[in-house]
């Protein structure tokens, strides 16, 4: 059907066949709170149209087809059904009662050394709205983390909509170009420029409006598989300005590279600018940009973190990792270093810049020799 004819559609009904219309109708109206919108013929009803909870059902006596599955999102599924969370209607329809606000499920983490090369063209795939995606952590660390290198070649308006994510952690770092974004209760749309990043706390409504040609961003989320929901009823920007609003225990962060202050990193010879994500997530996660400051010899170290991710934004550096030898990392390459693996950074180029993302924000790093 052509989009131009969509205005001709007045309503939608899900047809469910039933043998005993009276019993099926009683089940939906008396037990699940549906209301009757239509029933006919009056002397011997064959069809009943009922509605509730955002859905309209058409019960047809003698109709042919599967009885279907109906999923109802409830504040207390067990209380509604007396302890059962799956009900079967007299016509055979399976009714699943699920929590309306299901908790985020974190898969058991399976840490691994993961290296992604920018030069591997096979990794790039065309995704939503023509955007190009490169999966930086194919094994997802057991389903715990996802990291994507995203590129919008053409630029211009982005066919996005107001939406939100049910996540534990999610951030976006702009590597090249710019994007214009807008967030719930965070004021007017703003430009995310190269070097800037945002923390998207759980369920904050947001939208991407437009981008420059050749925009590149790094998006990191936990867990790897998470729900994204549209919110067409909310217009952005909102009238309220609440920069300190709490979203699931986190605050929104807009880190602007041009205003950042460089400070010492945990390894000699390097410095970093902190994004403020650690404070905004109450220590759950941290993100910082790292660069060499002075020449210093490489030092072997290890960490105890849940997640340590590096993306080479510019320049190059050699990673010496236990059991793997030396790997020269170039711009666009990324690596996940698992806990306990001895490693060192060596021979950084003068223009080197690394994006480092860790969970938790403060990572205990054991440096050999006590440095």
Description:
- There is one protein chain.
- This protein is mainly β and 371 residues long.
- Helix content is 5%, strand content 43%.
- The protein has three helices and 32 strands.
- The chain has helices spanning 21-31, 77-80, 277-280, and strands spanning 14-18, 35-40, 47-52, 55-61, 69-74, 86-88, 94-99, 114-116, 124-126, 132-135, 146-152, 156-157, 163-166, 169-176, 178-183, 190-193, 197-199, 206-211, 215-222, 227-230, 253-255, 262-264, 270-274, 286-292, 301-303, 307-314, 316-321, 325-330, 334-336, 343-346, 353-359, 365-367.
- Strands 8-29-26-31-24-23-22 form a seven-stranded antiparallel β-sheet. Strands 9-10-11-19-14-17-21 form a seven-stranded antiparallel β-sheet, with no helix packed on it.
- A hairpin with a 5-residue loop joins strand 9 and strand 10.
- The termini are far apart.
- The mean pLDDT is 93.
Shape: elongated
Radius of gyration: 26 Å
Biggest sheet features: 7 strands, antiparallel
Strand content: 35-45%
Brief summary of the model shown:
The protein is mainly beta.
Features:
371 residues, 7-stranded antiparallel β-sheet, mainly beta, 32 strands, single chain
What's the topology here?
Layout: E1 14-18, H1 21-31, E2 35-40, E3 47-52, E4 55-61, E5 69-74, H2 77-80, E6 86-88, E7 94-99, E8 114-116, E9 124-126, E10 132-135, E11 146-152, E12 156-157, E13 163-166, E14 169-176, E15 178-183, E16 190-193, E17 197-199, E18 206-211, E19 215-222, E20 227-230, E21 253-255, E22 262-264, E23 270-274, H3 277-280, E24 286-292, E25 301-303, E26 307-314, E27 316-321, E28 325-330, E29 334-336, E30 343-346, E31 353-359, E32 365-367
